[in-house]
Amino acid sequence: MFTRSRKDSSLLSSRGLEIDVQKDVLTMYGASNESVGCVLRGTLRFHLIEPLKVKSITLRFLGTVTLGEGAEFQQQEINLIDHKWTFLESESDSYLLAPSNYRYTFELPLPGNLPESVEVPHGSVCYRLMATVERPSFRTDFKAEKTVDIQRAPLPSTDEYLQPTMISGIWEERLGYYISTPDTIYTVGDTFPVMFNLLSLDPYFCMLKTTVVLKEYITYNVKNSNPIMKHYDLSRTSVIANQKQELSWEGSLNLEIPKRTFYDCETEYIRVCHKFFVEIEVMEPTGEVQVLRVLLKVGVQSSLQNELAQSPPEYKPITSFSDMPPPPYNIIVV
C-alpha cells in the first residue's frame, strides 16, 4: 500500500515507496517452546525522480493480537513485537534528497515463541511492515505497508504426526467397532477416507446408518475471562446400511476439508483444531433408534506446511547484509 497526494505524485517514479521481503512467508519450525525462530529480511526502496525535502525515513515491524467484539467478547489488542529501523534520522533541518533509487536493507531475527499468523471470525494475529517518509510541515508523508505471514511447521521427526488415526472398542457389549484413517494430517482442500468395521454382538441388533462429520473448533483466550470456544460443521457424509446385511458391516466414507477451513494452530491467544465424529445409528428389537458417537482428532495444515513437511529447507546461519544504506543527500549538486 502506498499513499501520496496528487501534488507530490510527480516527485516519485511509478514504483514510489516499496517494501520488498526476501520471503513472502516466514516459517517457525517446531513448537513455540523449542523453535529457534526465523529471520525477517528485506529492502525498503524509495524511487525519486525529482529533488525532495525529507525529515526522516523509518520502517516499523509490528505484531498484534486482536480479539473482536461480540456478545461474549470484550475487544482487546495486544502488542507482540514492535521494532523500528531509522534509515534517515530526524533533525532540525530537512534533508534535500537528490533524484535516485534509494535502497535500505533491513534484517530482524524473530524469536521462536512468536505466535503464527491467524485470522478467524473473532480474532487475528497479524504482522505488518510500515514504512514512512516524513515530510516537512504541511507536506503529506509518503507511506507504504506490507503484511508479513508467519506460519509454524511441525518437526518432521515428531511421532505424533507419523501415526494414523484409529480407535476401536465395544459399545455396551453389543457392538464392536474399528474406525481409522490412513494419515493423521491432511491439507486444506483434501478429501480423506474414514474406514469403519462394525460387528454386531447381538443378533437382534440392526445397524441403520453411519455418518461422519468434520468439525472445526476455535478457542479464544480472552484476558480476565474464561476461554471462549466456537465450533462449526465443515462437512458431512453418510451411508445407509443394506437391509439384508449380515452381523458385520464394513465400508468407507470420504470426508472433504473445504477451502474455507482454517489450518491448525495453537497459540497463547487463539487455538484452532479439528475433529470428526462418527455416528452409528442402530435399532433395538423394540424399534427404538440409538446413536453411538465416536470422536477422533485430525490435523489440518496449509499447502505451505504440507510442502515444508515433504522437503524442509536446509539450515542456513543468520548473516547480515553486506550492503549498507546509501548516505542521505543534504545538498544537491547541479
TrEMBL record:
Sequence intervals crossing the membrane: none
Residues of the Arrestin C-terminal-like domain: 171-283
A Pfam family per the record: Arrestin_C
Coiled-coil stretches noted in the UniProt entry, renumbered to this chain: none
Domain Arrestin-like N-terminal, residue spans: 68-144
PANTHER family xref list: ARRESTIN DOMAIN CONTAINING PROTEIN (PTHR11188), FI21816P1 (PTHR11188:SF17)
Protein name: Arrestin-like N-terminal domain-containing protein
Annotated source species: Basidiobolus ranarum
